[in-house]
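Shall we go through a protein fold together, starting from nothing but its sequence? Please make up or recall a protein chain and show it to me in full. Go ahead whenever you are ready, and we will take it from there.
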Amino acid sequence: MLSSIIPFSPDAAEEVGNYCAEHSNGIPRSMQEVWNWTSKTFKDADKMSSPLQGSWMIFMAEDRRAKRILEIGAFSGYSALAWYIGTKATKAEIITLELSKEMIAATRKTLNKFNLNDRVTLIEGPAQDSIERLAGTFDIIFVDANKDGYEGYVKAILDKKLLSPDGIILCDNVFARGMTINPATNPYLADSVKQYWIECGTALRDFNRFVAHDSRVDVTMLPLFDGVSMIKWKVDTGKLNRHQ
């Protein structure tokens, strides 16, 4: 297969997504409950990660045996719950950042209902300010907040060396519903949200360019979900030259 992307119609994409979910471990009942509640309660619930992506988060946390996780953008606490479940073995500390008062209340409801406060800390306020106050390193950093803030967040993380030597940054929604690539890429996007995602796409084009040209890191952008960029510290070129 020479291409990295299989072209699907919306109906076919939904069928493929369902097939993947049916042949994956899935998410526990607690996460499904939060997902259902969020979907019914918030008009912008489409910003929440899918059940399949929630399953992927659990898998990533377990596979990397993360001991400390930073999440930028809590939304309703769904992803914090995923990180919590995925780190049962390591008892990881999880820090999640949120600005919106509405979503802070939603996240606190999730944390309290499922008894997550022993390992999850919710920090309120602008993420950039919160990042500047953080110390130590994180094994997984999940960026899923305002798209015009991605570049500043990741730059601060790298400048402050908040990413552990073997850690990974996962930046979600780097496709912005396709608007990052080209506004014509997704003709199925609803007019009511199209301008919002076009603006996100503009910001994310700058962010993607920034990461690709930062000499400190390696990055791979994958067509997962709404686009995920995986970022890690660059391998010591004295030990390995990947471009030979």
